[in-house]
Amino acid sequence: MKTVSVSYKRHRFPPQIIAHAVWLYYRFPLSLRMVEEMLLERGITVSYETIRRWGRKFGPVYARRLRRKQPSRSDVWFLDEMRIVITGKKHWLWRAVDQDGYVLDEIVQTRRNTKAARRLLTRLLKKQGIAPKRMITDKLRSYGAAKRLVMPTIDHRSYKGLNNRAEGSHVPLRKRERTMQGFRSPGGLQRFVSIFSALRNHFVPPRSHRWAQHIRNHRLLTMAEWYVVTKAN
């Protein structure tokens, strides 16, 4: 767990309310006004703009303090790119997930070419520290070209249908995009996904532990860790 400090000084609301509001907004497909209404139902009067500020201030801190999955040489990286239109201009969100659906990294770029793919792979290697056993992508040739430059010895498979895990990882963000009625800037999208995916990684159980009892135990454990991370207990 990261040791980034959390300070709630000069905030009139207690940490429990701030952390709960941030959790609601980033964990579920809710708008800021929906979170405002949910808090009001509990007798907490706070504006959606205040919730937005809480998210921007505390969201990155919470995300950095959450426990990260340790990389392994047996990991398989699934890579894919998602088109997002921001103020009428097309952008690409490049994403990498592992065999458990854990989001490894995401980066917003304006291009869908070899240079963009190489940047993603370079960031991944730096962040993970070790190369994977295998890399799986769609048939975009930029991945193969970038792979030959960055990690030429790694097994690369690019067949239609093999990349469904990466493509499926876009679905939660698509839901958020509709709820938020789009993103306002590339920087805003990058900040949002860094927090959104960190919380999703933390709270969603691995694909290998999807039995009912495992899910309940996972939820209890991750919520207990969340209270420690946010100092909201």
TrEMBL record:
Residues 76-203 form the DDE domain. The keyword Kinase does not apply. GO terms for biological process: DNA recombination; transposition. GO terms for molecular function: DNA binding. InterPro entries: DDE_dom, IS_Transposase, Transpos_IS6. Keywords: DNA recombination, DNA-binding, Transposition. The keyword DNA-binding applies. Pfam families: DDE_Tnp_IS240. PANTHER family: BLL1675 PROTEIN. This is Transposase. The lineage of its organism: Bacteria, Pseudomonadati, Pseudomonadota, Alphaproteobacteria, Hyphomicrobiales.
